Amino acid sequence: MSTQAKADPKAVTEGQAVESGSSQKKPSWANLSKQVSHGKFAGTIFQQEEEKQTAEQKWIVEQKLKSNFYLDDGVSKWKVIYPIANGERQSPIDIEPGKAVADPALNPIQPEYGSHCCQSVLNTGNSWQVNVNDKITKLVGGALANEYKLIQFHAHWGTTAGAKGSEHTINGRLYDAELHLVHWNTKYELFSKAVQEPDGLAVVGIFLEIGPEDHPELEKVLKNFDKIRFKGLKHEFDEDIDPTKFLPEDRTYWHYPGSLTTPPLEESVLWHVLRTPVQISQKQLNAMAGLRSGTEKCEDITCIINNFRPPLPVGTKRSVKLYNGKSTNLDRVNSVGANGYDDSAELKKLIHELKNEMATLKEETRAIRNKLDAQQP
Ligand SMILES: [Zn+2]
Q1: How many A from CA of 356 to the centre of ligand 1?
Q2: N or C, where is the chain less crowded by C-beta within 10 Å?
Q3: Residue 292 CA, ligand 1 centroid: distance in Å
């Protein structure tokens, strides 16, 4: 991570965010050396030599994690530093819609993101990341028992040549890319604390697929990419970007308990993966895949491509639930005006619909009364 990135506590992809909050948790070179000299298997010279090699391997992987997570089959090496990579609650997963049971306890997701909540966009070396002023954001509903706040969002993608790069897959099928809106549970007061709790984070995953049109809201982010070409570069927005506009109209989602998909892979995420994909253009995907994973001064001019982790087993201790309930008119009335943009047209439409509903109900009530009156002796 560059100095520039370090100065900003949110200058990270979902997993890296933890580094600033709990760096003592991460094994250091000094700790690894200690493990070599005091390791419980240290007995023979041969064993000591073997452990030294392991420590060196770890050190190499650790350095690698600081530069590019994904290069040289990096994903398969994460477990060397983060044993939780082999855990039972890891993400992403392959979602099999046929097996996902509708859960009536799930609610519609209700995001409320204040105007100008998006502050800047950063090249983390592994993705682009929009940093959000979380104080003026709110996410309730879904599988959440508390209020969560949006801290950042970023994406995962494949290559410009058509290799797909979503993290979650549907019956083994990948989408072109995937957007992650990362929220933290206000119950824990700090993001760095929340990330260590089983219900600490809520990530809304949105599949992106290539279509003929630019996505207008995403374009507001991408048009600044010439200013964040290299790792560590950050650009402040000078216009309002509304993260609500990345959500598809149909907010049917799959929910399951999972983890961060980047180191340190903490098993703290309540996933909400939206079923309906959102369209972006090929040009927009190319802009993402044109970002560089190295700093301006380093010689590494590799582009950020294939920055996704392949699916992990669902296992036997968890299952995927489906929310497919239609939101009621009351839900819609409650959400009007909460998104920080002008909803007056939507409100008029709703009032009209509610009036019609009331008229219908009155009609039905009158018909029932008439019927009862007719039955009276
Ligand atoms: Zn992500």
Answers
A1: 43
A2: C
A3: 18
Contact criterion met (CB below 8 Å) for 18 and 266: yes
For ligand 1, the distance from its centroid to the CA atom of residue 8, given in whole angstroms, is 19
Q: How far is ligand 1, taken at its centre, from the CA of residue 110, in Å? A: 20
What does the domain layout of the chain look like in residue ranges? Answer: 22-85, 87-327, 342-377
Distance 204 CA to ligand 1 centre (A): 10
| Per-residue buried b or exposed e for 252-281, using 16+ beta carbons within 10 Å of the residue's own CB | ebbbbbbbbbbbbbbbbbbbbbbbebbbbb
What whole-number distance in Å separates Cα of residue 184 and Cα of residue 201?
4
If you measure from the C-alpha of residue 365 to the centroid of ligand 1, how many angstroms do you get, rounded to a whole number?
A: 52
Which residues lie across from 94 on neighbouring strands?
A: 169
pTM (global) more than 0.70:
yes
How far, in Å, CA of 26 to CA of 3, rounded? Answer: 18
Dist CA 258 CA 95 (whole Å): 12
155 C-alpha vs ligand 1 centroid, how far in Å? 6
CA of 203 to the centre of ligand 1 (A): 8
Alpha carbon of 363 to ligand 1 centroid (Å): 51
CATH code for 87-327? 3.10.200.10
Ligand 1 center from residue 368 Cα (angstroms):
55
